[in-house]
Amino acid sequence: IPSFVAAADAPLLYMPVKGGPEEAVRDWLGRLGRGGLIGDFVQKTLRQWKRQHGPHRSFTVLRHPLPRAYEGYCRVVLAGGNDLHRLMTKAYGLTLPRGAEVTPDQQHDGFLAFLRWLKIYLGGQTGQKIDPALASQAAVLQGFGQFQHPDLVLHEARLAEGLAFLAQDMGLTAPELRPVAAELPLPLAEIWSRDLEDAARDAYQRDMISFGFGRWRA
Questions:
Q1: Shortest CA distance to 17 belongs to which of 84, 62, 64?
Q2: Which terminus of the chain has a lower count of CB atoms within 10 Å, N or C?
Q3: Which residue has the higher pLDDT, 24 or 90?
């Protein structure tokens, strides 16, 4: 609940899935009205917001598992934001690149090793707490359900259309969606391979089946 974000003067509540297009959606939601955003909710304050706004909509946005895993790999593992890099290299003997200078082959091979390791990590076999940016999106939505489910689930690939529909449904004029590019060592398209597609599908099989994701690159 503390991660939920609402428009201050519009009846829309965004329930972010970590590793998705959070910055772009927050920016869009903040420009929807003139009051900016409200966050840091607890159950009491969220219920107050709901009562104050009457009829409202809640939504979340899903990202294809392959680019989501790649951004998580770059931001969480390679950046050293937690102990995952140490765990993967020391305990599991994986070779992962570090530093700004990385070749496409090194980035590809490191990411592939990470994806194959993810299957046991997400299966709870490492004994480590699952990082929200790497968790199954199906599991995240299941966690939302302990308080409430979003009533609309959008895919990032059709995000501009989905947000425009949402705003229109509530009688609002939708601002333009401004995508925010992630700062990554190399773009995913530069290191893409079928092996990466297959490994991502294997690691995130639940998400792929539950949400109807196809291949990121046909």
A1: 62
A2: C
A3: 24
Q: What is the DSSP letter of 44?
A: H
Contact present, 43 and 52 (Cβ < 8 Å): no
Give the chain's length.
218
Provide, rounded to the nearest whole percent, the portion of the chain with pLDDT above 90: 67
Cβ atoms 22, 13 nearer than 8 A? no
The values of phi and psi at residue 163, to 5°, are -70, -35
- 210 close to 155: Cβ distance less than 8 angstroms: no
Amino acid (1-letter code) at residue 132: P
Residue whose token pair is 């998400």: 207
Q: Which residues pair with 143 in a beta bridge?
A: none
Sign of CA dihedral 169, 163, 4, 137: positive
Q: For residue 25, what are its two tokens? A: 């959606």
Crossing angle for the helix pair 159-169 and 22-30, nearest 10 degrees?
30
- Which comes out higher in pLDDT, residue 102 or 211? 211
For the chain, helix, strand, coil in percent to 5 are 45, 10, 45
